[in-house]
Write a structure and sequence with these properties.
The complex is a heterodimer of chains A (107) and B (119). Chain A has strands spanning 4-7, 10-13, 19-29, 33-38, 45-49, 53-54, 62-75, 85-90, 97-98, 102-106. In chain A, 0% of the residues lie in helices and 55% in strands. With 107 residues, chain A is mainly beta. In chain A, strands 2, 4, 5, 6, 8, 9 and 10 form a seven-stranded mixed sheet that branches. In chain A, strands 1-3-7 form a three-stranded antiparallel sheet, with no helix packed on it. In chain A, a hairpin with a 3-residue loop joins strand 5 and strand 6. With 119 residues, chain B is mainly beta. Helices cover 0% and strands 53% of the residues of chain B. Chain B has no helices and eleven strands. In chain B, strand 4 (34-41) and strand 5 (45-53) form a beta hairpin. The radius of gyration of chain B is 13 Å and the shape is globular. The relative contact order of chain B is 0.32. The chains are: A mainly beta (107), B mainly beta (119). Chain A binds chain B through residues 1, 32, 34, 36, 42-46, 49, 55, 87, 89, 91-101, and chain B through 45-48, 59, 61-63, 95, 102-107, 109-112.
Chain lengths: 107, 119
């Protein structure tokens, strides 16, 4: 099973700033990494797939990058609605696995 | 617009069987895609439970394989999950999901159903 480790666990950011979230995989992946956003009381929502492709309707301030075992989600000019928990996921191998999440909170 | 709605008992005792149903609207489940379950507990975060193509064999999490059954009823447009011999560790919000293939990201999620296992 591929283990996904996210850092930091909590990120304190002010509105308008950039947030950089990291995800490390226990083995090298192809372009099979996704990112999800989850707000309290809601299901996760797909933001990024194939490392850097934005899902339908996702604003351009969200971008994904990386390769091999290191992946990054960047949120430019953080807006109030972006404060949430973000999860990375690998879908290279079964079972699909998620990282433990990064909570982006108001600084 | 595709909508997934989970339903089932919210409270179980240890050793009982967890049964959940996902009713799909806006799409015929027999027309394609992978349909599955993901659960989320405070202790273990997001965990992929398993998935099934409408006409194929299911894929189960190795950790749950011996207790798990996932099936599709195309006549009712429903997906079902059965997990036997539950313990407190199975307490979680269970999400019904849709994916393109076995190894693809999750595009559509249900709202989730909380299942608590407690004596």
């Amino acid at each position: 099973e591929i283990v996904m480790v996210q850092s930091p666990a909590t990120l304190s950011v002010s509105p308008g700033e950039r947030a950089t979230l990291s995800c490390r995989a226990s083995q090298s992946l192809r372009s099979t990494v996704a990112w999800y956003q989850q707000k309290p009381g809601q299901a996760p929502k797909l933001l990024i797939y194939a490392v850097s492709s934005r899902a339908t309707g996702v604003p351009a301030r969200f971008s994904g990058s990386g390769s091999g075992t290191e992946f990054t989600l960047t949120i430019d000019s953080l807006q109030s609605q972006d404060f949430a928990v973000y999860y990375c996921q690998q879908y290279n191998n079964w079972p699909l696995t998620f990282g433990g999440g990064t909570k982006v909170e108001f600084k | 617009q595709v909508h997934l709605q989970e339903s089932g008992p919210g409270l179980l005792k240890p050793s009982e069987t967890l049964s959940l149903t996902c009713t799909v609207s806006g799409y015929s489940i027999g027309s394609g895609f992978q349909w599955g379950w993901i659960r989320q507990s405070p202790g273990k975060g997001l965990e992929y439970v398993g998935s099934i193509y409408h006409s194929g064999s299911p894929y189960y999490s190795p950790a749950l394989n011996s207790r798990l059954s996932i099936s599709v009823d195309t006549s009712k447009n429903q997906l079902s999950l059965k997990l036997t011999s539950v313990t407190a560790a199975d307490t979680a919000v269970y999400y019904c999901v849709r994916k393109d293939t076995v190894v693809s990201p999750v595009e559509i999620w249900g709202q989730g159903a909380l299942v608590t296992v407690s004596s």
